[in-house]
Amino acid sequence: MPTSEDHNQRIIRLLKKEAEKKKYIREYMRQYRKKQAENGIKQKQYYDIEDVKKRMRENYYKKNVVSDIKFLFI
Question: What's the pTM value of the predicted model, to 2 decimals?
């Protein structure tokens, strides 16, 4: 049975390894996007201001309709 200190060291080592992996992926993707932008290929923007406003309005109306239907069946 491992001692608690060995167990803690193993957990710390695994967390450091995971953090280094995430950092590597983040840096790689940053360089990849930069290289793509230099070639004229930009990443698609999914959330323009107008799209967000449109989704907010749709959700607002859906919420009102659902609350009205609930009120009718009370």
Answer: 0.50
